[in-house]
Amino acid sequence: MAQIFQNQKHTIIPILLFTLVIQAQYSHQFSKKLSPKSLGLKKQKLTHLHFYYHDIRTTSPPHVVQVAEAATTNTSKTGFGGVSVLDGPLTVGPELTSKIVGKAQGMTASADLNDFGFLFVINYIFTDGKYNGSTLSVLGRNQVLLPVREMPIVGGTGVFRFARGYVLTNTRFFNVSSGDGAFEYNVYVLHY
Question: How confident is the model over 137-164, as a mean pLDDT?
Fold first, then answer.
């Protein structure tokens, strides 16, 4: 019996060591390749969304508030260094009274010394229909004086998980005195 145990001991120990080495190698793996199907992702599709964002500063509470500025922001011809946060409605039509389909939340920063160019860091949060609870994230430059501006979609959640694409925006209405405005958005997004 002791002889059998000795023979098995020489076989079992290398197998155990091999198993421990393999387990240690894969238990702390940094990355691995996955198929989209393993995450439940189906065929990629292109969706076009059309809505209006309302940038209203004259309501109580306002939808846009400046939260920071540089020492030279007020003397800069472009408001360079001014940072604002926003939480405003997305609607089906250009009127503020039209059906609300979501809201835009994020921040803008005047980031150009010579032109009115803003850094946009915006999440579109959808609250209606099949997109309810889904978001799109936009990060890009918005040159507000151009007739049409393009910004990239860098991600999304929910229906828009793994999203990428772009938005085209134009100014439908802007009141220079109050700063209130309405902006049309055409959104082209690839997602699963």
Answer: 96
The string of DSSP letters for 53-121 reads: EEE-SSSSS-SEEEEE--TTGGGSTT-TT-EEEEEEEEESSSSTTSPEEEEEEEEEEE--SSS-EEEEE
Structure tokens at 76: 């800069």
Per-residue pLDDT at 6? 58
pLDDT of residue 150: 98
| Residue 83, C-beta contacts closer than 8 angstroms, at least 6 positions apart | 66, 67, 68, 69, 107, 108, 109, 110
From residue 154, give the alpha-carbon distance in Å to each of 18, 71, 165: 44, 32, 7
Report cis status (omega within 30 of 0) of the bond before 152.
no
Q: Contact, 64 vs 88, CB < 8 A?
A: yes
Closest residue by Cα to residue 53 from 168, 178, 189: 168
Q: Which helix (H) or strand (E) holds 42?
A: none
